[in-house]
Please model this.
Amino acid sequence: MKKIGILYGKERSFPEAFVQRVNSKNFAGIIAEPLKIDKVIQGESTGFAVIIDRISQDIPFYRAYLKNAALCGTAVINNPFWWSADEKFFNNCLSTKINVPVPKTVILPSRDLPVDTTGESFSNLAYPLDWEGIFNYVGFPAYMKPFAGGGWKSVYRLTDKEDFFNKHSETGELVMMLQEEIIFEEYYRCYCIGGKYVRIMSYEPRNPHALRYVADFNPSEEKLKMMTDIVLRINHYLGYDFNTVELALKDGIPYAIDFCNPAPDAERTSVGEENFEWVVETAATFAIEKAQEQNDGADNLTWGEYIKRSASKQSLFYG
Model:
C-alpha cells in the first residue's frame, strides 16, 4: 500500500477535500491521509510514498522532517531542499535569464544590524549606498517587500524617496526588495501543478482580500497561451510541483510579479468554488501520479532546470 500524506497548519477545506478526493478515486494500492508525526529518527522512512507540504515554510521542525523523508525516498511536494534555498529576489534574477519579463528590482541590506553583528561585519558594504542610482533604476511609485517569505506581510507602496526612507526605517532586520510598480490593465493568478497543469484565474490585488478573485478579465486565446508558456517556463526552471505565478499585463506584456508561492492559497472561501474544485482535483490527480512513479529508497524529488543544468556541467567537469 502506498500512502499519500498531507502536512498542513490552520487550513481545513483544502486538506480535507484533497484526502477525500484521492480516496474517492479508488486507485488500487493507494490511500491518502493527514500526517501524524510522533517521532523523527534519522535515516528512517516515514512510510509515505508522497507528502504534500503546506506548512513547513513556517515550522523548521517540519522542514527537517521532510528532508529526512525525501532522503528515504518520499516524493515531497514541493522539494524541501530547493524550497529552503529559494527566495523571491533570486527568482527575479533567474527570470532575467530565461526571457520572462519582471519589474525592475533591487535588493537592500536590512535597515538594522542583524543579531550578533556590528558595523565591522559589513566591511564590504559601501556606505551610503548609491541611493540615487537605485531610485533612478527602479523609479517611483514603487513597492518594497521582503526578499523572502509569502503573503502581504511588510509590503509597502512608496511614492517618492522621502516615503521610502520613512517606511524603510520600520523594517528592522528584514532584507527588502525595492521593485518597480507595474501599472497594469489586467492581472492574473495562475496555479501550476506538476509542471504541466495550469489554471489562469482573473485576480484583482487592489481589492480587499476576500474579493481578489472577484475579477472579470477576459484574456484572448493568444494571451492565455502566452501566460501559460511563461508559467510553465518559470516552474520548469525552479522545479516547483505546486506553485502560483502572478502576472500583471501592461501594454499586452505579462510581467511576473510574484512566483515563489509553493504553499499557495487553496481555501474554498478565498479562491471560490470553481477554482477550489480545480485545485483539489488536479492536486489529487498529480499526487496519485507521483505515488505510482515513486520508488522506495530513490530520489523522488523534482529538481528544476537551473539545478539540473548546473549538476550536468559539474558531472562533465569531473568526468
